[in-house]
Amino acid sequence: MDIERTIHNYVEKIPVSALGWLAGKIAKKRDMDMKWPHWKCDAVEDDAESPFRKDLRKKVFETVMEKAPEMPVRVKSGEGHRYKLVLCDTTSRNMYNSGTYEPNEMAFLSEHLREGMTFLDIGACFGLYTVWAAAKVGPRGLVAAFEPSPREFRSLEENVRLNRLGNVRAFNIGISDSRKKCKLRISGLNESGQNTFGEFVYPGVTEIDNVLVQLESLDEVADRLGIGKIDVAKIDTEGHEYFVLQGMRKRLAGDRPVLLLELFDEALRGQGRSAEEVLELLDQSGYDVLAASEETGDFIKPKGKLDVSFSRNIAAIPR
Fold first, then answer.
1. DSSP for residue 314
2. Any domain includes 39
3. Do 107 and 90 sit in the same domain of this protein?
4. For the chain, give me the number of helices (H) and strands (E)?
5. 19, 92, 260 from 65: Cα distances, Å
6. Of 57, 81, 98, which residue sits at a domain end?
7. What CATH number does the domain containing 117 carry?
8. What is the pLDDT of residues 67-123, one digit of tens each?
């Protein structure tokens, strides 16, 4: 109790203007792509870190959330990647408290990314995967990041600049099945990854704005931008994944990229499609689907029918 009281009194005396700096200094550091069996959102690892540091991090987080929840906080990952976060956001909160987000997905991608490859981040948000992947493909490689939300695109560009990444090309457009304009519903900053062209499907997520954005098919935009062979792609478009895949059929057939994508039947149905249709499209395109094992974190072939009643990430590898 004495330690807790000491931490409480210390943090309470810190000016709000200095809280962001302290939060950045004590944020959890961990290799982002190190497997984490049974990982789930807001999990905290039971490791050898000192209880004092854990308690201090927790108290600083609580104080930031109480006094300035949208305060920018700069953190550094275990690998040295720099991110500007806003701790009220779910992904940012996880990066601050546990040093990673979706570690098993990153571990899978790490097994397939090599120097000189081309990686696509479709639905890049503030650039979590973009920055991480840029280091994996190196200066001879390319990361092409697509983010239609103007708010998230500004954060993406800032994180690219923060890491001085010369191998990233960021585009403020959405990827779909054709060239068109579409209304993007913007969620609150606490759930910045939930912007959608359809319906919000998570409790508590509300629309604070909407914006008309440009969409293009990947086949069209990749050819127009002169993007060569696509090796790996991450697709997280909040229910728009079917349309993204439809618009990249030429590249699926020709380049045979490894895929990581979100699959959530409710979100897909909010845009007139279904998880079953996504799985059928992947099968018709010559891909096998893998899902993460809770026990090991490895992506393996699912036993029986894949449960799509909740949001999950799947991998698809060419046969």
1. E
2. no
3. no
4. 12, 13
5. 11, 12, 32
6. 98
7. 3.40.50.150
8. 999 999 999 999 999 999 999 999 999 999 999 999 999 999 999 999 999 999 999
Torsional sign, CA 118, 91, 282, 226? negative
- Angular region, 299: left φ>0, alpha ψ -120 to 50, beta rest: beta
Helix (H, G, I), strand (E, B) or coil at 51: helix
Q: Is 133 in the same domain as 67?
A: no
CB contact set of 136 (below 8 Å; sequence gap of 6+): 109, 110, 113, 114, 115, 117, 119
Q: Does residue 202 have a pLDDT over 90? A: no
In a domain, 224, yes or no: yes
Q: Note whether 76 and 176 are same-domain residues.
A: no
In sequence order, what are the beta bridge partners of 144?
120, 169
User: What's the chain's Rg over C-alpha atoms?
Assistant: 20
Q: Is residue 262 part of a domain?
A: yes
Say yes or no to pLDDT of 233 above 90. yes
Orientation of helix 2-12 relative to helix 51-67, angle to 10°: 40
Nearest to 137 by CA among 156, 119, 162, 159: 119
In one-letter notation, the amino acid at residue 189 is L
Residues 74, 159, single domain; the answer is no
Rounded CA gap, 202 and 111, in Å? Answer: 31
pLDDT digits 0-9 by tens, 8-28? 788 888 888 899 999 999 999
Pair 183, 284 in one domain: yes
d(CA 12, CA 33): 34
Dist CA 237 CA 226 (whole Å): 23
Beta strands in the chain (DSSP E): 72-76, 82-86, 118-122, 142-146, 168-171, 174-176, 180-187, 207-217, 232-235, 258-263, 287-292, 299-300, 312-318
Whole-angstrom Cα distance, residue 286 to residue 30? 36
